[in-house]
Amino acid sequence: MRPFNFSAGPAALPEEVLQTAAAEMLDWHGSGMSVMEMSHRGREFASIFEAAEHSLRTLLAVPSNFRILFMQGGGLAENAIVPMNLSRGGLVDFVVTGSWSKKSLKEAGRYCDASAAGSNEGNRHTDVPAPATWALRSGLSYVHVCTNETIDGVEMQTLPDLAALGCDAPLVIDCSSHILSRSIDWSRVGLAFAGAQKNIGPAGLTLVFVREDLLGHALSICPSAFDYRVVAENNSMFNTPPTYAIYIAGLVFDWVQRQGGVAEMERRAITKAELLYGYLDNNGGFYANRVAKPARSRMNVPFFLSDESLNDAFLAGAREAGLLQLKGHKSVGGMRASIYNAMPLQGVQALVNHMQDFARRHG
Ligand SMILES: Cc1ncc(COP(=O)(O)O)c(C=O)c1O
Predict the structure, then answer these.
(1) pLDDT, tens digit, 9 for 90 and up, residues 168-178
(2) Centre of ligand 1 from the C-alpha of residue 4, in Å
(3) 284 C-alpha vs ligand 1 centroid, how far in Å?
(4) What pLDDT band is residue 1 in, cutting at 50, 70 and 90?
C-alpha cells in the first residue's frame, strides 16, 4: 500500500488514475504515442480535450452561458489575469480571509483601484467576516473572494449573494483548493478559477469558468494569451495548452464520476472533516485547531501541538507510520492535513490513530 499523502498541493491523486496513466504512458489507446507526444491540434488529443471538458461541465453543472478555459499560470497568474480582463481599470473590492485573498488584493492593485471591503486579519485569519459587514463600494467592476484558504484552513460554506447585499457587480471566486468537493451555485458567480494541483490533477493547468458577458473587456496591456475572449474564441488552443495535465485531469473527472460525482465527494469530505475536527476538539488539549467552527475548511486542516518542541518528533513518527507531508505552511507553523478528494477515509483514520498514539506517549 502507498503511504497517505497530506500535501496541500501538488497533492495526492487517486491511485487508479496513476495506474491508468502508467498503463497508457507509451501508447495511448493504440495511437502509438504517449499523450505527451501528441499535437494539441490532432484528432487524438482533440478527443481527450472534448471528453475532459464535457465531464467537467457535467460534474459541476456548469451552465451553457459559461465558458470553461484551460489555461496556464496557476492561481497567482490569475491574480493579474482577472483584473486585466474584468476590472476595466476601475474599482474592485476584495474580502480578505487569509493568505491567498490577501495576495490577490495586492496583485490586483497593479491594474485597478483594489480595496478590502472586509478582512479577518484582526482575527489572524480564523473566521469569515459576515457578508452583512462587508463595506462594498458602489460602481464596482467585480468582487473577489477566496472560497477556501488553503494555508489558513478557512472555507466559505456558502457563496455570498451579492445581489442581496445591494451589489450588482459579478463575484469572482478563487476555488483552487476545494473545487469538485462541493457544488457551485453559478447564479451567484461571474468567474471562478482554480489551479489544478489539489483536487484536479498535476500543476500547470488552471481552469477558468467565465460568464460569457464578461468576455471582451481586457485592458490593452493584457497579453493575448491571457485575454479570456481570445482564449475562448480559440477553444483554449490559442497557445499550446498543458496537454498532459489536461489528460490527467480528464482521468480524475472520470474517477469522480465513477465514485458518484460531486455530491458523493462532498458527503465523503464531510465525513473525513468530522472525524479529524472531532478528534482535534476532544483530545485533552494536546492538539488544537484555531479556526471558528463555521469557517473550518473541509479540505485543509491546520492544527498545532500545545508543546511545539514536539513538532519534529510528531512529523518523524508520522512518516514512519506512512503519513506524508503534514508540516504546516511556514507562515502559520504547526501541522496541516490536506484531505482532498483523493484522500480516503482510512487515511484520515490513520492520521487520527497516529495523533492518539503520539499524545499517549508524550502527553
Ligand atoms: C487558494 C489558492 N489560490 C492561489 C494559489 C496559487 O496557485 P499557484 O501556485 O498555482 O499560482 C494557491 C496555491 O496553493 C491556492 O491554494
Answers:
(1) 999 999 999 99
(2) 22
(3) 34
(4) confident
Q: Per residue in 49-96, pLDDT tens?
A: 999 999 999 999 999 999 999 999 999 999 999 999 999 999 999 999
Ligand 1 touching residue 177 (CB < 6 A): yes
Long-range contacts of 235-242 (CB under 8 A, 24+ apart): 236/49, 236/69, 236/70, 236/71, 237/40, 237/41, 239/72, 240/40, 241/40, 241/49, 241/70, 241/71, 241/72, 241/205, 242/70, 242/72, 242/202, 242/204, 242/205
Q: Which amino acid makes up residue 185?
A: D
pTM of the predicted model over 0.85: yes
What is the sign, positive or negative, of the torsion defined by CA atoms of 173, 179, 181, 182? positive
Catalytic annotation, residues: 100, 174, 198
Place of cell 485569519: 125
Distance, CA of 337 to CA of 343 (rounded, Å): 10
Out of 150, 191, 226, mutate this one to test ligand 1's pocket (max ligand atoms within 8 Å of CB): namely 150
The atom of ligand 1 lying closest to the CA of 203 is 10
Backbone dihedral angles phi then psi of residue 274, each to the nearest 5 degrees: -60, -40
User: Which domains does the chain carry?
Assistant: 15-257 (3.40.640.10), 260-362 (3.90.1150.10)
Cβ of 152 less than 6 Å from ligand 1: no
Q: Is the pLDDT of residue 363 over 90?
A: no
Atom of ligand 1 nearest to the CA of 149: 1
